[in-house]
Amino acid sequence: MTAVLEVHDLSVAFGGIRAVDGVSFAAERNAITTIIGPNGAGKSTLFNLVSGLIPPDGGRVVLDGVDRTGEPPHLMQRAGLGRSFQITNLFFELTVFENLRLAAQRLENPMRFLLPVGRSDCALTRVDELIARFSLAEKTSELAGALSHGEQRRLEIAVALAAQPSVLLLDEPTQGMSHADTADTSKLIRGLAKDVTILLIEHDIGVVMDISDRIVVMHQGKKLAEGAPSTVRNDPAVKAAYFGHA
Amino acid sequence: MRDNVTAAPVVDRLALAMRASHVLVAIFVVAGLVFATVGVAMKDTFFLRLATEALIFAGLALSVDILLGYSGLLSLGQALYFGLGAYVAAVVLKEIPSFWVAMGAALVASLVVSILAGLIANRVRGVYFALVTFGLAQVAAKAVYNTRALGASDGMIGVPIVPIDLGVATVMSNSPAGFFLFTLAFIVVLYAISAYLLDTPFGRVLLAIRANERRVPSLGYSTRNARLAAYVLAAVVAALSGALYPMLRGFVSPELLFFTTSGNAVITVVTGGVGTLAGALYGSVILTVLKSVIGSMTEHHLIVIGLLFMVTVIFLPKGLMGFIRPSIERLIGGGSR
Ligand SMILES: Nc1ncnc2c1ncn2[C@@H]1O[C@H](COP(=O)(O)OP(=O)(O)OP(=O)(O)O)[C@@H](O)[C@H]1O
Ligand SMILES: [Mg+2]
Q1: Do B8 and A113 touch (CB under 8 A)?
Q2: Above 50 in pLDDT, residue B2?
Q3: Which residues of B touch A117 (CB under 8 A)?
Q4: In angstroms, rounded to a whole number, what is the distance separating the alpha carbons of residues A70 and A62?
Q5: Strand A3-14 to strand A58-63: parallel, antiparallel, or no bridges (unpaired)?
Q6: Are A25 and A48 spatial neighbours (Cβ–Cβ below 8 Å)?
Q7: How far does Cα B128 stand from its chain's mean position?
Q8: 3-state secondary structure of B210
Q9: What is the 3-state secondary structure (H, E, C) of A10-56?
Q10: Chain B interface with A: residues with Cβ < 8 Å
Q11: DSSP annotation string for B13-58
């Protein structure tokens, strides 16, 4: 197995709080690596460090063998990283179609950056794929802001996936979804792992155990444990820190 | 255009809205041609020149709309570039009476200044961006106001009449109908260039910045570069429009750089319709007509403009074009995406 994304000794502190404190792990190609941990454990902050939204105080982020520590988010995206957000982060006043087209735009030849959007064939083909895959065909002309919560969460994943990243970071994609939607979405995510390496943050422990290839447990900024689902489930320290609260 | 893979036809609202703007601008041009014909028939000078001025200020409003309507950036200092273009053109024309040299100089000057000022202004957003752009324009206005070589508070007079060599024909800048038609064509070209650029992936990035700037970097775009590009584009549009001013009036004055000029351009865009581009053209005509008609009756025309602004904001929050354009969209919609 090869690691597509490696994180070495990553740290950041906000004021006195060490939100992420010396975390190291690797995400294997086309596997689902899930980060779990109680509220405030530092999971989203870890994503922000990996995706370049926050520069780390220390440590390294290696993507496809290249050290990309401290690179800004738009360069991380171009290096092959896509991400979704815990709090739905879409272009609410634009349509579903336009959200996807924008997100897929990077696939287009850069020479077409100043050609009419209607000529962006690669992007438009990709949008059609996404619309089909995420069952958004009925909603393409609706404003993202007018979608139901579940639809918005689905679009959030589609937008993150649009530019065909090699690594996809999903921050609580099923957050606030109904049971049925959660089940569908976890199946969808499992399917995505066929062609993309996934780093997932998920609270629903059923989903976690079901779809993860590997689990990283965080607690108070530190990595508490790491391993296959069955190993992590039976780890006494994890039980005390995490499942104890759940 | 493209085979339909999905069942439901997708309407690209943004492209449709842009096409509706083109229709509105086409109507504007036809109205302009009719106006010019009537003007020539009646041997008019005053109204043709007033209309030319409206068109020149429409270019400034267009530049405000590129920033406000497409990138969500409120500039309270676009007069900086309008005045820059006007002064550069005036200075050049007094030395070398060549239209193209004057326009080229205005273009280069606005590129240089806007890249430098843009690096400063784009460090901040929202209200702070408005204040920084306001401040930059004030500094420039005061500097010009106190520079003897630029005529200080009096401005510069005696800008010569220039022939505008268009290859097929030559228009004299003092020909009321000729220069009106030339300015109409020129502003339409500025509109067309802006509309074209805003309908590209670049333009969509700007719209994305307006909609949700924080999300844009994760799509692979540097928001700083995109905002700077929009700022420079807007500056060039303002400066090229401003460069026509001394050709029309034969003089430039520091007022061109003052806040009233920047503020009027914002009012023009809000009245005409933010984010429509066409609104800048219509708005400028409305504002210029009101200013001169009411200005000839009372000194307090600013009160009327203030009232107009408030009435529009309250009753036509999307401006005149924002109100009309959806009907045009329905008329031309239903076609391809
Ligand atoms: N930008 C910030 N400034 C200051 N403190 C922050 C910032 N972002 C996160 N924190 C703090 O860092 C800690 C970790 O937060 P983080 O959002 O990463 O947790 P999380 O594991 O994602 O939690 P949740 O499960 O609730 O989403 C918390 O104490 C949080 O208050
Ligand atoms: Mg979180």
Answers
A1: no
A2: no
A3: 12, 14-15, 199-201, 203-204
A4: 11
A5: antiparallel
A6: no
A7: 22
A8: helix
A9: EEEEECCEEEEEEEEEEEECCCEEEEECCCCCCHHHHHHHHCCCCCC
A10: 1-2, 5-8, 10-15, 196-197, 199-205, 207-208, 211-212, 214-223, 337
A11: HHHHHHHHHHHHHHHHHHHHHHHHHHHHHTT-SHHHHHHHHHHHHH
Q: How far is CA A101 from CA A96, B19, B163, in A?
A: 9, 19, 47
Give the pLDDT mean for B51-58: 98
Give A10's strand partners: A23
Distance from C-alpha of B82 to C-alpha of A241, rounded to nearest angstrom: 64
- ipTM for the complex shown: 0.92
The structural domains of chain A, ordered by start, are 1-80+168-246 (3.40.50.300), 87-164 (no CATH)
Tell whether pTM > 0.90: yes
Cβ–Cβ < 8 Å for B256, B83: yes
Backbone angles phi, psi at A116, to 5 degrees: -55, 140
- The answer to whether residues A107 and A126 touch, using CB atoms and an 8 Å cutoff, is yes
| Residues whose CB falls within 8 Å of the CB of residue B165, separated by 6 or more in sequence, listed in order | B99, B100
Rounded to the nearest angstrom, the minimum Cα separation between B264 and chain A is 28
Write the pLDDT tens digit of every residue in A14-36: 998 999 999 999 999 999 999 99
Q: For chain B, which domains are there?
A: 9-332 (1.10.3470)
CA distances from B191 to A203, B28, B186, B199, B264 (A): 51, 12, 9, 12, 19
